[in-house]
Amino acid sequence: MALHLVYSNDIHRLADRLCETLANERREKVDPFAPQTLLVPNPHLAKWLQVRFCQGTGLSMNIKFPFLEKGLWELAIETWAGQESWTYRHLEREKVQLLVLAELLDRERLERLPLFRDYLSRQPGLTETGQVGRAWQLSERLARLFSDYEYNRGNWIDAWLAAPGRKIEDPVEANERDLYLALFGPEGSAKNLGGGAHLTLPQLVRELDGTTSSDSDTLTPVHLFGFSQLSPFHLDLVFRLAKHRNLFLDQFNHSPNLWAEVGTERDDPDPVKFWGRPGEEFVQLIDEFHSDRHSDVEFHCERLESPKEKSPTFLA
Fold first, then answer.
1. What's the CA gap between 280 and 277, in Å, rounded?
2. Please, which pLDDT band fits residue 86 given cuts at 50, 70 and 90?
3. CATH class of this structure's domain 2-85+212-303
4. Where are the domains of the chain?
5. Residue 278 pairs with which residues in a beta bridge?
6. How far apart are CA 246 and CA 1, in angstroms?
7. pLDDT for 206-224, tens place per residue?
8. Please, are residues 21 and 223 in contact by the beta-carbon 8 Å criterion?
9. What pLDDT digit, counting tens, does each position of 69-84 carry?
10. pTM passes above 0.90
11. Mean of pLDDT over the chain
């Protein structure tokens, strides 16, 4: 079980390598009817890959193309929940917004959130429809903020859950904390939805942390194709899943080092340098995650070299 990073500035070379890898996996599969899983950032790339696979091996069927969030949710459930997978329901941001809206429209509950109460009552001349519209706009922003906190500021969420009664001087954070706990705390409204545990992806990972995993021998390889960047949370989850199955991260990367062999007129031209910096930093971030947090995960990194003869581009 390992994480394999393959990156290139030529998406066609990445797709061809992926096509070969999938073909090899199909030949080695124990269950010929088990689908292969390929996470993609958008439906257009999925359609392009299907066409590319047909041109390569002539096969593009029995391949699932989930997007990142849904795909990682399914992988986490399959890896850690096993037979209990039916007890979990994915709580998407749109549903979180509806939960927030319900809190904002409940006058009794809103009294516990004075900052948001004052914001919603700032224009007393508004009609009831206008007040609901204002609450809807606020709920959308708060749902987006909670999502950002869970993915990029997990330490905030951990602190809120660990010490719900802790005094917070900043009124904005204090009201956000109280609202978040009203939704997702031990007695939060999300617990009352019924039909299983309704969780966001970060909440699911926190819920299943330390649980017994499924038999790794039964878990098939998974590919993530075309993601230029991943959030720290997603990258950490990818490493954790790679402890139990082979994961391939096929990255379209604009690192200046990859363009050095193309044959540009100037050495390290500024446009290429700045355009490619995020890709270079992302590879460094993956290496840091491996060395600092997940040294127990086997990690392989491969750069697909640019062909010696390349057709002219606007960078040439």
1. 5
2. confident
3. alpha beta
4. 2-85+212-303, 92-199
5. none
6. 5
7. 988 767 666 667 788 999 9
8. yes
9. 999 999 999 888 876 7
10. no
11. 85
Is residue 253 scored above 60 in pLDDT? Answer: yes
- Read off the tokens for 156: 């905030």
Angle at 90 between CA 201 and CA 197, to 5 degrees: 100
Cβ contacts of 156 within 8 Å, gap of 6 or more = 149
